[in-house]
Each structure stands twice: as C-alpha cells, then as structure tokens.
Amino acid sequence: MTEPFLEVRDLNVRFRDESGFASVPALDDISFVVGAERVALVGESGSGKSTAARAVMGLLPPSAKVAAKNLRFGPADLLSLDHAGWNALRGSGMGFVLQDPRFSLNPSRRIGWQVEEALRLHTRLTRKERRERALDMLSAVGLPSPLRIYESFPGELSGGMGQRVMIAAMMINRPKLLIADEPTSALDRDLRDQILDLMGRLTAEQGAGLLLISHDLQQVTRFADRVLVLYRGKIVDERRGHELSHSDHPYTRTLWAARPSAATYGTRLPVLRRDLGTMP
Ligand SMILES: Nc1ncnc2c1ncn2[C@@H]1O[C@H](COP(=O)(O)OP(=O)(O)OP(=O)(O)O)[C@@H](O)[C@H]1O
C-alpha cells in the first residue's frame, strides 16, 4: 500500500443524552488507515459504521465526544481543525457521497452550479474553465447529454443520475479520499454495481482512496481491497475483500451467514444475537 492518506488510531466516540455520556462507546478505540485503495467498513446496524465515517468527516453532532491518539488526514490533525480548516479539507482533500442524493443536492440550484462548487471555492479557475471541467466530469460519470444535465435541477433527475451528479461534484477537485456512506442503498439493485464501479474507477484514475460504508457484504466482497468488520464499536476482523466469505472469525461468519437473500436484498443487516461466546 502507498503512504496512507487517512490515519485513525484509537478513535473513541461517546454520545451524550440528558443523563450524561453513554456508558458504552459508539466507537471503542478503533484504528485503521486508508491509502490509495478501497477499504470497506461493514457490520450490523448500530455497530458504528456511520459514526466512524462522520468522525473522519468532522460531521458528528455536538453531543458526540471524540477522542483519539491520532486522527490525521495527510498533514492535518483532524482533532484540532477549525471551521475554516474543515471547509478547506472538505472542498479539496476529502469528498463524501451519502446514501440519498436528494438530501445532498440543493433542490433550488442548477446541477452545473453544484458540480462546480468545489472549483468555485477552492481554485482560481475562470467561469469558462469551471464549466468545461464540470461538463467533462458529468460526461466522465456516464451521464447522457452533459449539457442538458448541467442546466437541470435535481428534481428532474432519477436517484441513479443524482448519485452520479454527487460523484461528479465530489471528484471534480481531485480529492485524496472519497468517503461513501451506503452510497447505493437507495438505488435499484441493477444500478448499485454500476455506481460503485464508477466510484472505484474514478478514485483509481485519480490515485485517491475510497472508504466505503456498506451493509451489503456481497457487494463488498467483490469490490473492496480490504474489509474491516465492526461489532459494537470495535473492529473485530480485517480481511481482504475476496476472503470475507471464508473468514474464520466467528462474528464475520455469523454476519456472512445472515446476509440478505435475494428476497431481502437491500435491507439492513439484522442485529445479531449477543451470545457469540468467543467474541473478543
Ligand atoms: N446522534 C446520536 N446520538 C446518540 N447515539 C447515537 C447517535 N448516532 C449514533 N448513535 C449510536 O451510536 C451507535 C453506532 O451507530 P451508527 O449509526 O454509527 O451505526 P451504523 O453501524 O452506522 O448503523 P446503521 O447500519 O443502522 O446505519 C449506535 O448505538 C447508535 O445508537
């Protein structure tokens, strides 16, 4: 692996409610790195996948207490970044694709304006250059008639097209890391692999890393270089993607056995029973 872009060491997150901080942390000292590769975080519902992604993106709510021995993105210490530092990082170093583009795209702005945003905020490109880059990017993500899409509003696009637009907007300024939190779970089954492959291809072409949060073990097995398995806020297993199905770890085996069938495909992983005797 190349030099990692993201380094997470002993990341601990606790949420607070009216009665104080939860006794069980949402993330219990997890450590991992991501370089120019595809890393997936999997685990049942509530295991901490989204909390890990949000901690890395600086998007946890104020009720979260975040501590870590090390939480770095390149030279940036994420624990001490101020508002301006986060804005700079989010527009140029890291991109995010979330579950449903309807919540990420501004419904009242044209697609072109939104795809160009990172260039407008973080580069000195002229209006004409930005437009050219945006049209190239819309074409690179496989959208037909980029010019028409450029002039459209989000409400005129399907979910799959919206997700392609998000990917274009996130990759246009060549980030070092793309974080995708369940990016395909709102899409029809036949679109899921296409969208994932698109993110994989663009990140590889740009020499970037991809951190994928997924509950779809089948998808992850095919796609990820490395898979980190989360259970109750801890990383309990780490495998190469294609090795996940024959992991000898008891929790991974249970998770694999509980993966949705064709009939239940797309649903969240169930919360598994808690009496896995040999669990760490
Ligand atoms: N804003 C919050 N306030 C309080 N507790 C939270 C908050 N967000 C997450 N949690 C708790 O943190 C733990 C991890 O949740 P998280 O959403 O990260 O899990 P997940 O693996 O992403 O689950 P899912 O697959 O259902 O999205 C859970 O116990 C959850 O209830």
Automatic annotation (TrEMBL):
Annotated ABC transporter domain ranges read 8-257
List localization entries. Cell inner membrane
Question: What are the alphabetically sorted keywords of the record?
Answer: ATP-binding, Cell membrane, Membrane, Nucleotide-binding, Transport
Per the record, a Pfam family?
ABC_tran
- Cross-referenced InterPro entries: AAA+_ATPase, ABC_Ni/Peptide_Import, ABC_transporter-like_ATP-bd, P-loop_NTPase
Alphabetized PROSITE patterns for the sequence: ABC_TRANSPORTER_2
Gene Ontology MF: a single term: ATP hydrolysis activity
Q: Does the keyword Nucleotide-binding apply?
A: yes
Membrane topology term: Peripheral membrane protein
Name the domain of life: Bacteria
Q: What is its main location?
A: membrane
Q: Which GO terms describe its cellular component?
A: plasma membrane
Under the heading Gene3D superfamilies, the entry gives: P-loop containing nucleotide triphosphate hydrolases (3.40.50.300)
Q: Name the family.
A: Belongs to the ABC transporter superfamily.
**Identification of the protein by name:** ABC transporter ATP-binding protein
The organism encoding this protein is: Microvirga alba
